[in-house]
Design brief:
This protein is mostly helical and about 325 residues long. It has one domain. It is built from 16 helices and no strands. One of its GO terms (cellular component) is cytoplasm.
Length: about 325
Amino acid sequence: MGVGGGVESPAYYENVQYMFLNIQNIHAMRAALTKVFEACFPLPDDTRWFKQLADSKWLYHIKQIIFAATSVADKIENHKTSVLIHCSDGWDRTTQVTSLAMLMLDPYYRTIRGFEVLVEKEWCSFGHKFAQRTGGPTDGGIYLPPNSSSSVVNETGGGRPSSPEERSPVFLQFIDCVWQTMQQFPHSFEFNERFLITIMDELYSARFGTFLFNSEMQGRDHGVRERTISLWAYINADIQLYQNPLYTPAEISGHRVIFPQHALAQLQFWTAYYIRWHPLMRLQEPIARRERALILIMKRFRELTAATQRECAKPTLNNVSDNSTHSRSRSNSSKI
């Protein structure tokens, strides 16, 4: 599958089906998010809201990414073929498509721990430039002004902000695509919306070492594992906050592979993230407390179900008695 400028010559690949998926480059995505920002801040204008959202083409870009990932998942699951995903560099659009396709194909990645592994594997380890894409220092780490007396600049980063031309909401688009998929399959994800919002908030907060650098090598050179806390450790320490009370494991639901719809009419604007500070967007009836209650109910239900299954599996007194009688009858018959 060819995406963007990184296209191989067909002469080198016989018997290969080419698919051009038309995912735009980082500059188009940055321009789209800028228009979303203009529509949302300082406050959305009701008279122009839908036009501004349409003009941004944000949901169109989300649609293209979901379409690309479902195409990959379909080739692998239904046609049993191998897929080579190729973009200009391999750390932006390629990563969006591979990680989203894995999320669709493997229910493990739809669990909290599995999603953490997915981000570490496909984004951090494969060299997505988190520092540059989020406006961090060119060498990763933490940016401080030149007059700062802190030694953190020399120890953890280059101290110079990245070029604005390198900024782009690539990872945000992936998280948005995950959220869109969750809306269509609300029982298939162990994590909830708060989990995704927390990841996005901490992406820009620089409180954790998970997203500070442009590559694993930069992080290793600056001792990120020894000197910073992982975002995943923070989340897993209070994991109940991020659990979806409606989650049903794939072995029970039968939804091992999921294929979300990518039609624009099916997609939604993620107001809980993009416009959450608008006073009119506050939930009239907060659901966090209800979610926690449902989680406890579901936990108790699963415990009772497991206990019942164990009880049913035990041999009953009548069965033991019947088996003993049957054995004695066979013994008497053999004596006769």
